[in-house]
Amino acid sequence: xxxxxxxxxxxxxxxxxxxxxxxxxxxxxxxxxxxxxxxxxxxxxxxxxxxxxxxxxxxxxxxxxxxxxxxxxxxxxxxxxxxxxxxxxxxxxxxxxxxxxxxxxxxxxxxxxxxxxxxxxxxxxxxxxxxxxxxxxxxxxxxxxxxxxxxxxxxxxxxxxxxxxxxxxxxxxxxxxxxxxxxxxxxxxxxxxxxxxxxxxxxxxxxxxxxxxxxxxxxxxxxxxxxxxxxxxxxxxxxxxxxxxxxxxxxxxxxxxxxxxxxxxxxxxxxxxxxxxxxxxxxxxxxxxxxxxxxxxxxxxxxxxxxxxxxxxxxxxxxxxxxxxxxxxxxxxxxxxxxxxxxxxxxxxxxxxxxxxxxxxxxxxxxxxxxxxxxxxxxxxxxxxxxxxxxxxxxxxxxxxxxxxxxxxxxxxxxxxxxxxxxxxxxxxxxxxxxxxxxxxxxxxxxxxxxxxxxxxxxxxxxxxxxxxxxxxxxxxxxxxxxxxxxxxxxxxxxxxxxxxxxxxxxxxxxxxxxxxxxxxxxxxxxxxxxxxxxxxxxxxxxxxxxxxxxxxxxxxxxxxxxxxxxxxxxxxxxxxxxxxxxxxxxxxxxxxxxxxxxxxxxxxxxxxxxxxxxxxxxxxxxxxxxxxxxxxxxxxxxxxxxxxxxxxxxxxxxxxxxxxxxxxxxxxxxxxxxxxxx
Length: 679
Prior knowledge:
Elements: H1 6-20, H2 25-36, H3 41-49, H4 53-65, H5 85-91, H6 95-100, H7 105-113, E1 122-125, H8 131-137, E2 143-148, E3 165-170, H9 187-196, E4 203-207, H10 215-225, E5 233-237, H11 250-254, E6 260-263, H12 268-301, E7 317-320, E8 328-329, H13 334-344, E9 348-353, H14 359-373, E10 378-383, H15 401-413, H16 427-435, E11 439-444, H17 453-463, E12 470-475, E13 493-498, H18 503-512, H19 517-526, H20 534-545, H21 556-576, H22 583-613, H23 627-634, H24 642-649, E14 660-664, E15 667-670, H25 673-678
Parallel strand pairs: 1-3, 2-3, 4-5, 5-6, 9-12, 9-13, 10-11, 11-12
Antiparallel strand pairs: 7-8, 7-13, 14-15
Helix pairs in contact: 1-3, 2-3, 7-8, 7-12, 9-10, 12-14, 13-14, 20-21, 21-22
């Protein structure tokens, strides 16, 4: 409520003067004009009232005592100077108290800015109040605090034993008057003050001192006269539009064009909030650039494919609404078509296809190309598989779980996430970027999220009122998700359906995959069904490359059976054949592992169905599993004990496929949903 703003006291003193001269209008105007033209308005107003410097200090303190939470240290005017710093120091240890104190806009923002300051920062303050410290404490900023009395005694020692921000506080928290007073009272501190400043600093910011001849200004002048670091820039921020007229600043004025930069009309109540918004924006941009660099590498490495991410660019497609998505034939590359619509319209885009045609790969390529094409737009790639559907949209996006989901993904992706430890600071900036279209959300596998039917209906309603757009993917078979979206009316979207492959795409794949002539002819002539989808071709290629010669029929079931058969055999034989397992034991182990995978898939399926369909079933389905989940399943097996199972699940070999993949620490799921569905 104005605390920390000198304008608060100017207005207070002015009202007192106006009341005093209410019957002498001409004299009142003369006195008010004199005060308004003074270099230090509130001091001049106070003098005209008849206040001494001691009186001014007492007025400051009396006003400060009115702040909520300081009732503990109230006292009458004669007892104010006896207030114990230790008592205040103890009060400030309570973070809830610090958060309850009402600060002006400048101090409130400065505490938030302090989260971004380097540990080598030193802050000097001459004020008699603890509100600078409160601004840092309420934002949980570590600092060493030194408070000095006017005779350099009663120093409160720092309690944090590590490199951190330092605050030099002259003079204490009310042990005596402010440094903005007569010079003779505070000469003792000038040498101490100037000696405390690091001579190797890069920048010195002086905020709020217009150059009147007080102790603080004299200390700064003394410091500058002996300051020999010519690489340091001195940033002097004036509250008004010129330096004071005191003689001590003549040298400073002559140095303005050299190393002193003057900023005029700087009101800290406007400067710091504006600066905070700028810092948050730059900080977020740094995070997003780091996120992209690491995310694109992770997306590449997570793709079990003979293809590069960009090889799907010329896939055939149609587009329209979800209801009429085959209405128009695409004529340009699908990546360009998607990006042009995302950047130039406010349409959300839904990529539809049967499983295994390349929806996720196309989303990954779009992620890469958006960033490469326009550095003003930042893509965020989120896999919604096994995530709760109600995390996706919320009326108040800033406070929604979606923002937390984005931040969690940034933390997991960024190599610098420990440096970026203040994500709470950027939530509103992240939200603004999304609504302004500076961030494009790519939500992969929205149909594979976890939801109850009423949550799905809620999603349909909220899709019609979104104030941002996104890119997502949905399967067209084995799932009712897409069919239930057909009747949505006001969802501002474009649906794109990917076509199954024909001979052009197939020939390109066979060339890229380096099949020999015999293998090419076999695929072209034998596999009329399996050659239509890249996932099947990848599985076929993997088996051929590993010299798997068992005959494979031209149907999905037989392909998955043979693929799982080869993978399970290879993993178990690689792990156990050298450990003197008899062949019969190995066969038992293989059969038990197949049974385990089947039971696991059935358990996941049933839990999903119960969760979706049963209104009273509130337990989240275990779409991922861990040791606690699978320990019970293996208890009945002869050879597949918990130790052997963990070895199989964690099996890793370069360029070898694993049916089960780790999604986070101790959490596993099936590599692709189609394996779970097949089982």
